[in-house]
UniProtKB/TrEMBL annotation:
This is PROPROTEIN CONVERTASE SUBTILISIN/KEXIN. It comes from the Eukaryota. Belongs to the peptidase S8 family. Residues 67-165 form the Subtilisin-like protease fibronectin type-III domain. It is found in: Secreted. Gene3D superfamilies: 2.60.40.2310. The keyword Transit peptide does not apply.
Amino acid sequence: MQNLPMVLGQVNPDRARNPGLVYDMDEMSYIQFLCHEGYSGSSMAVLVGSKSINCSSLLPGIGYDALNYPTMQLRVKNEQEPTIGVFRRTVTNVGPSPSIYNATIKSPTGVDIAVKPTSLSFSRSAQKRSFEVVVRAKPMPSPQILSGSLVWKSNRHVVRSPVVIFKPLD
């Protein structure tokens, strides 16, 4: 449980005032995520305050989790074969310009994590850049939680995104 604050997105108030990069999400992004998670009909209406949302008429969210969020979590599905998740993310520069962020990956044993591109360059504030993270986890015979991270580092900021790989109890 030592990683629980990291996984839950514990915030450092001093650093939160000047984060460098942010992951933007709007209302439609949340609706797409809820559709991806299987919500529909009246349960969706209760959550978003709308009488009719037809998930099949919406563009699906992008990536494994249909979410543009710092944390990436991969549920291991199979005891015999690797599980692969492709996460697509977009960040907005809210720090100084120009700035370059370089990626560092920390992978737990049995997990490969790769990011493309490995560097994000921003020439102005409010500029957006997208990247893709591929997580490949070896089969897990028993329930467990593993954690790694993707860290974007510039000369002024460190932006950490947790990567959680888990096999739940059956």
